[in-house]
Amino acid sequence: MYKITLDVDGMACGMCEAHVNDAVRKAFQVKKVTSSHSKGRTEIISETELDADKLKAVIEASGYDVLDMKTEPYEKKGFSLFHRG
Question: Which residues form a coiled coil (predicted)?
């Protein structure tokens, strides 16, 4: 799994976040996508690495600018109430 973090300029509200999230979901099969206009960031969790050029183009076609992109391996963190050390 991969975590892709994008710095996105131009998001001003919750609807902007929704536009970016919807654009990503329509173009790629992802596990999770969340955006924050206050942080200017979009985070994507995906089974496979995404095409960086296509991802940037999809977001910019929605009217927002991608300033930076970082891809890193992602491991889901386990959570249990019963296994305390």
Answer: none
